[in-house]
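Handover notes (outgoing to incoming on-call)

Open items:
1. DUF5329 family protein: sequence verified, structure written out, both below. Nothing else pending on this one.
2. Nothing else urgent.
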Amino acid sequence: MKSKMKACVLLGFTLCTGMASIGNASAQSSSIATSEISNPRLSESQKVERLIQFVSKMEGATFIRNGSEHTCRQAAEHLESKWEKHQDDVKTAKGFVEELASRSGLTGEPYTIRFADGTVKTTNEVLLSELKQLEQ
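DUF5329 family protein structure tokens:
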């Protein structure tokens, strides 16, 4: 009987009681792996990249920076260049939004977004809302 009671190690789990437990642990570890894949923890840099992608894919929006209108793609490129230049100084995605993506570094004027329906919001408001979604 003792020979049937083997200790098995599978993916860091110590199992006893033979093959039935291995099957259960395998199913459990697959479930854990699947949930981690479907809801991965993003690094701060990954969150920033997702925010920039979000901006680039906004449809019908016009970005207003220092009184000039820009396309979504232009806005994303501008934010990307600011991120590349300052990423060693800004450590979090929230910091990126608040310090780089919300206002002009030259004039201090807030960046705004005019949506297709005419609604105008600050970039800060829009990106902090999107960041909240990313972190859920």
